[in-house]
Amino acid sequence: MKEILSKLNQAFDHRVRLGIMSILMVNEWAEFTTLKDTLGLTDGRLASHIKALEKEQFIEVRKRFVGRKPNTSYRATEAGQKAFSDHLDALEKLLNNTRD
């Protein structure tokens, strides 16, 4: 059991970060407003969780202008995809272990 728990990644301990990564795993890029609306967050709350995932280099940021409006999008990096997949695998093993 301790071995399984050690494979859980603390970067994904919070439900918001789980939500962000879940969205980014199934979309090539996701805009800030899409993440904010989908997860029901304020700008500041989303920004703080994005910053934490950026610090771990699990997400990449793309800032550009669409017309004259600034547009910020995010995607999961390869390292982020692997870390999140490993985290989900550990969760699945933990759940299966507790059901036996």
Task: Walk me through the topology.
Elements: H1 2-6, H2 15-26, E1 30-31, H3 32-39, H4 43-55, E2 59-66, E3 69-76, H5 78-99
Antiparallel strand pairs: 1-3, 2-3
Would you mind describing this structure in some detail?
The protein has 100 residues and is of the alpha+beta class. The chain has a single domain (2-95), classed as Arc Repressor Mutant, subunit A (Orthogonal Bundle), CATH 1.10.10. It is 60% helix and 18% strand. The chain has five helices and three strands. It has helices at 2-6, 15-26, 32-39, 43-55, 78-99, and strands at residues 30-31, 59-66, 69-76. Strands 1-3-2 form a three-stranded antiparallel β-sheet. Strand 2 (59-66) and strand 3 (69-76) form a beta hairpin. The model has no long low-confidence stretch (mean pLDDT 93).
Compact overview of the structure:
With 100 residues, the protein is an alpha+beta fold. It is 60% helix and 18% strand.
